[in-house]
Predict the structure.
Amino acid sequence: MKLHTIFLTSNVILNGLFISAANAADVAEVPAPKPSNTLSLEFSPEWKTSDGSVADDYLKFGYSHSFDNNIVWGAAFQYAWRPDSTSVDQLETSLGYKLKAGAFTFTPSALVGYGFGDHPNINHLAKTDAEAYYAFVLAADFKIDDHWTWNIVNARYRNAFDTTWITPKVSTGITYKFDSTNAIYANVGYAWKDAGDGKGLLGDKWNVVLGYKLSF
């Protein structure tokens, strides 16, 4: 009887050890959660399409949060300064949805913004005036591998609520991820403008962007 009891006790202990080891292995194999928050900082010079002169330079700070249902909310602040010593500030908030198809990701979004400063670059406004605006954006990206992503196109339609400020823009670029946290990106863009002055939609500016993203 004693030997039988010892044998049963040993089995229970060994089974407990195996189960504990298996549970520990399961815990160790659980992947780390994907980052859902991203901070970004980008710098860009912009040139006039009419004569190639500098239109302005800007710094843009951004934040976005990705929800589990693929909805993405974002906010941004942009400060631009011009050669004539005027400046423009823009505050924006956006809401989008990520659609994934293999290596492709499509993100339609809508945003509202508010421009203020010396001159928000809207035709009829005088200095210190401000203007609210809206935009619709479609981004298409292709993941080449774990590090490289081709930002195929980012297409924007933008207009002011109370006046004509039709400013569509298209850009294309590339993003390089060092790891799940750090990434750098670059793109080139071209914008048009219809300021409501009867001239219609004309080439306005082109720019080059360099940026950094921190995800957590």
